[in-house]
Amino acid sequence: MGFIRKIVFLIVTISIVLLGIKINNLLFQEPPLPVLGNVWWGPGAESKVDTSIRPFKINVPQKVLDDLEQRLRKARQFTPPLENIQQQYGINTDLLAEITEFWKTRYDWTQRERWLNEYPQFKTNIQGLDIHFLHVKPAETAGRKVLPLLMLHGWPGSFREFYGVIPLLTQPQEGKDFVFELIIASLPGFGFSQPASKPGLGALECAVVFKNLMQRLGFEKYYLHGGDWGAVIVTAMSSLYPNSVLGMHSTMCFDDSPSATIKTILGSFYPSFIIDKKYENKIYPISATFERMLLEFGYMHLQATKPDTVGVGLNDSPVGLAAYILEKYITWTNEDGKTLPDGGLKQKYSYVELLDTVMIYWVTNSITTSMRIYAESLNKASMEFAGITVNVPTACTRYLNDIGYQPDSLLTSRYRNLVHTADIENGGHFAAFEVPKAFANDVWIAVEKMENSYKSKKVSK
């Protein structure tokens, strides 16, 4: 019997060890980088296209504007809001009525179109898709190093959200020996960038598109900035093409790996192990965080499963489109806006600025194609990629009114060369749009740290 017990004990021990190895591999072992080729996303079979860089100006046909005017004028009467309710059930229709009246009587697209065209815009065909981008060179260099910076937006944003930071980043700053050359691109299917004709163009695949765009423009090495889906894309670029990426700045750094999830859960028993007391309420109690996710992320499930169905109504009704988009600008700018009659919108934006974004989606008929990025990205491949590390110099900036938060203790597991983090009080999800000066200042600080790290490495050699 003693011999049998030893055999059983040995088998059990080996089983436990093997199980532990398997769990370790699942939770802590980094998955391999995905192999992503130059897929043809355009219509039909791959064919020869014009790969030149073509100047572009926004020029919306008058018939599109006339149609919009009729639809706004003929919009059905809104359902009255419930008594003593502001934005808790979605955008308040009294607020929507005010914005719609402004749209009909005071918003001038012709003037806004001229303003948007003040910065040089271009298109070029990448993998079968015409990609739209701004290319703004510095006002002067005066012996300074010129650093290319690719900037990518997310949903429901657009290239428009970076207009306030363009002069702040392309003007030389006192004490800085570099200045930025900006490439601000529209994601495929967003605004004036052509949508994919085939399924499968998610955030990972967009990383290939924008790597190819930067190559087309002649940039061998460059910096990146991304927020929202743009953050996911620049993170993928940083992992996939570390020899091209000098550094990454993101306003939505996150680690969704199983190990990060376990740490977060364990931190609920002793929060200070994970997060500074000052920001503890951004994560804990977990039940409150989960409640916020249930309340605010229903749109994500719809867009990840049935974007084309949702898009039909939004493409047909301009006031429906405005309601759907602007509701996100209320809750994602500051959750407290739900309790205010104007949603807090006027604290950070003007109606003109907000309607610029709505108009870009309307005149390009791109709300459906923009929402498809959820369906193409929230899948097994993307979930596996969430655990892949980033080794390029990284800056992670958190705006404290944003919808999510992860402290340094979680981020350092994924971003192995985290050179800069910041917690900025006055800002939310659309940081560049909301607080352009604070945003631009943070970019300058972060990139200066990255540049100094490169200089110190050269000196040490």
Automatic annotation (TrEMBL):
Keywords: Aromatic hydrocarbons catabolism, Endoplasmic reticulum, Hydrolase, Membrane, Transmembrane, Transmembrane helix
Catalytic function, reaction form: 1-(4-methoxyphenyl)-N-methyl-N-[(3-methyloxetan-3-yl)methyl]methanamine + H2O = 2-{[(4-methoxybenzyl)(methyl)amino]methyl}-2-methylpropane-1,3-diol; cis-stilbene oxide + H2O = (1R,2R)-hydrobenzoin
Epoxide hydrolase N-terminal domain location: 53-162
Enzyme Commission number(s) from the entry: 3.3.2.9
Predominant place of localization: endoplasmic reticulum
Single GO MF descriptor: cis-stilbene-oxide hydrolase activity
Similarity field: Belongs to the peptidase S33 family.
Protein name (database record): Epoxide hydrolase
Organism: Popillia japonica (Japanese beetle)
